[in-house]
From TrEMBL:
Top-rank taxon: Bacteria
PROSITE patterns: TAT
Classification via InterPro entries: Alkaline_phosphatase_core_sf, DUF1501, TAT_signal
Native species: Prosthecobacter algae
Protein name: DUF1501 domain-containing protein
Pfam families from the UniProt entry: DUF1501
Length: 483
């Protein structure tokens, strides 16, 4: 028992049991990380980002996902529809599922840009995306994607976490949970966000859900400082910071050791420790000034339209080159949601990403990284084959296309996917996927397979139930997509 004679007020306030300990306890209580004896049970679990063995052979070691939030028009970019050209301006001949009935019409609008075969594979793509067309022989173009939930949020959830509801871990969190990371000085999972803002659903796009927080995506901003609060204040630089961090680490470890099984607490401590290591490693990885001028030009850094997205694609390559497991590159909120003025807004959106996206694939290939890195490009939906929002105009300057999650396109490259291959098709109108359909859960099962992860074995026990990314029993590995 302490007495007034055994400890001074100054020594009490400066001890680990004084104000610092009270502040730590308050912080942990506010964040819900204090141990709860009533919920205790089972063996303590330890979660970290050290490399872990896959369930089997997997060619893919990393993934870069370029997520085009809003819904790129597959009809105008990736899947030519001659029948629509014949029907252009006429009434749609069948049933159609609108999302925004108020602005809907039945007037068919065929593809507004010309298609032509690309590369030796002859995959047809439109003149909107000449750079992506130039890498046709490197990609698998999936023309039969399907989620069937006709709004942005639900379809984003389906493609990123496997269900149409939030609160679940995203694909990047599952893969880093299953495999860890090859670089302990950088985050395993990075989200490169758009300067125009976060996409629909915000941070849910890179959430760890109910997995331990060590598996959440770390945001890297589009401008400096790319990671906030990474630099210490002047008073803590150098040896002072080292001593301070060692002291805090010792207190944290003692606190954690007395509370076995508190996985969120353990993950939070690891995040603090990673942040300290990142002060040097992250700055080097995010610094593109030493890249060659040829590389910068390849990504379009010399052009105002492509500079920003090109920088993020180049940073993504640098991150996977240094052992980061999963990188998501997001476009801004509704960048591709062209309900109106599609004749001007779609070309603008394509111009911003076309060259950098193709450059990423070419750069990875020339560095010997494409075989082990999955590259993904696509959004949560496509568009309908009929006009929306004519608003009385005689011409088509104001019109757009409504949502379509029943059939749309995206492409993947590297990591074990086929080269120069177009898979599946929608109907002659581009509305419904009808040939070799790939559902979101099939896509996830295929990706996990390429990483050597068994969807049934990649589990996390939550409230006594084994949770998985791929829940639909009909999910299959789409072997036709694999090299």
């Amino acid at each position: 028992m302490w007495t007034e004679s055994s400890v001074s007020r100054r020594s009490f306030l400066s001890s680990a049991y004084g104000i610092g300990g009270i502040a730590l306890a308050s912080l942990l209580r506010d964040q819900g990380l204090l141990a709860n004896p009533a919920l205790a049970g089972g063996l303590p679990q330890h979660f970290d980002l050290t490399p872990k063995p896959a369930h089997g052979f997997g060619q893919a070691k990393a993934m870069i996902s370029m997520f085009m939030q809003g819904g790129p028009s597959h009809i105008d970019m990736f899947e030519p529809k001659p029948e629509l050209m014949k029907l252009d301006g006429k009434d749609f001949p069948g049933e159609i599922k609108y999302d925004d009935a108020a602005g809907a019409s039945r007037e068919v609008m065929g593809p507004q840009w010309k298609f032509k075969p690309r590369g030796k594979s002859g995959i047809e793509m439109s003149d909107l995306i000449p750079y992506m067309g130039s890498i046709a022989d490197e990609m698998t173009l999936i023309r039969s994607m399907h989620t069937g939930v006709n709004n942005h949020g639900q379809s984003i959830y389906a493609l990123l976490n496997g269900q149409v509801v939030g609160g679940r871990p995203t694909l990047g969190s599952w893969i880093t949970y299953g495999l860890g990371s090859d670089n302990q000085d950088l985050p395993a999972y990075v989200a490169l966000t758009d300067p125009r803002g976060l996409p629909v659903l915000g941070v849910d796009n890179f959430s760890n859900g109910w997995l331990p927080s060590v598996y959440q995506g770390t945001v890297v901003r589009s401008k400096e400082p790319r990671i906030l609060n990474l630099d210490p204040p002047m008073s803590l630089k150098g040896e002072a910071q080292s001593r301070y961090l060692n002291f805090v680490q010792r207190l944290n470890r003692e606190h954690a050791d007395s509370r076995p099984g508190e996985s969120d607490l353990e993950a939070r401590i690891q995040s603090f420790e990673l942040a300290a290591r990142m002060q040097t490693a992250a700055k080097e990885a995010l610094d593109i000034t030493h890249e060659s001028e040829a590389t910068k030009k390849l990504y379009g850094l010399d052009k105002p339209a492509t500079e920003e997205f090109g920088k993020r694609c180049l940073i993504a390559r640098r991150l996977v080159e240094r052992g980061v497991r999963f990188v998501s590159i997001f476009t801004g909120n509704q960048t591709w949601d062209h309900h109106s003025s599609i004749l001007t807004s779609l070309p603008k959106a394509c111009e911003q990403v076309d060259q950098p996206a193709a450059a990423l694939v070419l750069d990875l290939k020339q560095r010997g990284l494409l075989d082990s890195t999955v590259v993904h490009w696509g959004g949560e939906m496509g568009r309908l084959p009929v006009i929306q929002n004519r608003a009385g105009a005689k011409d088509r300057t104001t019109v757009g296309r409504d949502h379509n999650t029943y059939g749309f396109s995206m492409w993947v490259a590297g990591g074990g996917f086929k080269e120069g291959y177009a898979h599946g098709a929608t109907d002659e109108f581009g509305h419904h996927a009808v040939e070799k359909v790939v559902n979101h859960y099939d896509y996830h099962a295929t990706l996990l397979h390429l990483f050597g992860l068994n969807p049934k074995k990649l589990t996390y026990k939550r409230n006594g139930t084994e949770q998985v990314l791929v829940e639909n029993p009909a999910a299959r590995v789409v072997s036709e997509l694999l090299a």
